[in-house]
């Protein structure tokens, strides 16, 4: 397994990162099976594990904690905060109050005294970044977290966060976690160039575009990817929508390209993400051991320039076929806020 520098931190991480969203109630409910999958990834050379407090309401973190007993020091461990954890309006967001509570809960569930990377799960323009960075800086200085990251930040917020950290004497965000795939290429426009400018590591998620590039869904499909985690996202998975029909047609074209290139569609999709010089690590999110095995092989695939050119012909650079897949939606552009 190839290792790459995590931005300018000096930390080396595997080019595949194990995402754990599908371990627990949202996916694989058998804890022992989830632990076996995690151990198989570690044995294959993966040293980077990403989870979040909200994944199955903490259950994923608990599973990861069990799996890493005796192996914690060998792993760069990342988790996230910010998403609503329950119905309490204060159990979410980027406030000092919630961050201080959330980090302690994550440390307990993960069975560790520190986090290597603590990430703000989404940007919220209603939350003062100095409030968030102030709390996170205190946690770094207390030794509870090593590095700060964020996920799915728009370009303006990424830049703003860097300036807030500089001007207020805060620890700065050193990683961004955006969505990126052959169907979702918006980050090529601004996020990847900005991350390089600020020396940030980029651990991109959903290289299989939420299942659209898994090889399971073809143009004769009656429904798109479905799971407990997908059912709430009809705008991204409802096949009656024209933008999702475009995704299905592109996935069909990519499947044919993969056949021509002598690789599986899964290998093509993950290898595409890994080929971009701005990507540090691609997050894979297997639900089963079979899923994991089919994704690990992508680490050995190198795409030729001819194949990359053909990918660009199907979905041009910088284009996302369904804008809903970009992850962050500006709340001020929503109908309720246009008045």
Descriptive account of the structure:
The protein is an alpha/beta fold and 339 residues long. It is built from eleven helices and ten strands. The chain has helices at residues 31-43, 59-67, 96-110, 129-141, 155-168, 191-197, 234-237, 242-261, 265-275, 289-296, 305-314, and strands spanning 3-5, 12-14, 16-19, 48-50, 76-81, 115-120, 145-151, 173-177, 201-204, 281-284. The strands form two sheets. An eight-stranded parallel beta barrel has the order 3-4-5-6-7-8-9-10, surrounded by seven helices. Strands 1-2 form a two-stranded antiparallel sheet. Strand 8, helix 6 and strand 9 form a beta-alpha-beta unit. The mean pLDDT is 94.
Task: Compose a concise summary of this entry.
Helices cover 37% and strands 13% of the residues. The chain is built from eleven helices and ten strands. It has helices spanning 31-43, 59-67, 96-110, 129-141, 155-168, 191-197, 234-237, 242-261, 265-275, 289-296, 305-314, and strands at residues 3-5, 12-14, 16-19, 48-50, 76-81, 115-120, 145-151, 173-177, 201-204, 281-284.
């Amino acid at each position: 397994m190839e290792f790459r520098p995590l931005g300018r931190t000096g930390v080396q991480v595997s080019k595949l990162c194990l995402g754990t969203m599908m371990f627990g109630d949202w996916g694989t409910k058998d804890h022992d099976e989830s632990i076996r999958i995690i151990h198989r990834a570690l044995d294959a050379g993966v040293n980077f594990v990403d989870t979040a407090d909200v994944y199955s309401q903490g259950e994923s973190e608990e599973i990861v904690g069990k799996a890493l007993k005796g192996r914690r020091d060998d792993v760069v461990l990342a988790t996230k905060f910010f998403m609503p954890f329950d119905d309490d309006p204060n159990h979410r967001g980027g406030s000092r109050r919630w961050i201080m509570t959330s980090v302690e809960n994550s440390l307990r569930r993960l069975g560790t005294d520190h986090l290597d990377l603590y990430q703000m799960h989404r940007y919220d323009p209603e939350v003062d970044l100095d409030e968030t960075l102030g709390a996170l800086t205190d946690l770094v200085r207390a030794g509870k977290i090593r590095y700060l990251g964020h996920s799915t930040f728009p370009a303006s917020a990424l830049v703003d966060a860097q300036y807030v950290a500089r001007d207020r004497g805060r620890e700065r965000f050193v990683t961004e976690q955006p969505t990126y795939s052959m169907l979702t290429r918006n980050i090529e426009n601004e996020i990847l160039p900005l991350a390089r400018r600020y020396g940030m590591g980029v651990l991109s998620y959903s290289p299989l575009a939420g299942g659209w590039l898994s090889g399971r869904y073809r143009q004769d499909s009656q429904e798109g990817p479905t799971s407990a985690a997908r059912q709430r996202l009809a705008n991204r998975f409802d096949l009656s929508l024209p933008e999702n029909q475009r995704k299905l047609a592109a996935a069909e074209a990519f499947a044919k390209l993969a056949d021509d290139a002598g690789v599986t569609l899964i290998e093509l999709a993950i290898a595409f993400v890994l080929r971009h010089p701005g990507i540090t690590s691609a997050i894979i999110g297997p639900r089963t051991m079979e899923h994991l095995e089919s994704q690990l092989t992508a680490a050995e695939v190198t795409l030729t320039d001819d194949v990359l050119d053909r990918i660009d012909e199907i979905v041009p650079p910088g284009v996302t076929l369904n804008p809903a897949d970009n992850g962050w939606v500006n709340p001020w552009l929503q109908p309720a806020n246009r008045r």
